[in-house]
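Box 3.1 A note on notation
Throughout this textbook, protein chains are presented in two layers. The first layer is the amino acid sequence; the second is a token string describing backbone geometry. Keep the layers aligned when reading.
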Amino acid sequence: MAKICPRGFQPEDLEKPTPLLHLLYTQNILQGRWKLLILDFLAKGPQRFSQLQRHLGNLSQGSLTKQLKEMEADGLLQKEIYPQVPPRVDYQLTHKGRDLLPILELMVAYGQAHMPAVEDRENNQRP
């Protein structure tokens, strides 16, 4: 898991976990430009690397690989490698990853309720 600050999560932080620590943990595992989009796409079921890459607008292989490795290390997804030529790799959400889906739904609902309408933005830009 990536660190939330230079000292990261220390054992003494975990002795008496607080709601703030739990919030920071959740924020930390969702941190990354593409992770929310990857979670959303994998919610539909197992996907191949190339399908993920196309869905994300041909994100570079290195960037996608980095995000997937972090998500796998955090236990959000698992990959299955099929021994064939060319190699086939499928990614799917784990139970821990699926537990984040209601949070994504709440984020969508929040955006729908609070994002200014396009017309409002255009009206505010006029002199």
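Residues 34-115 form a domain with the Arc Repressor Mutant, subunit A fold (CATH 1.10.10.10). The chain is about 55% helix and 10% strand.
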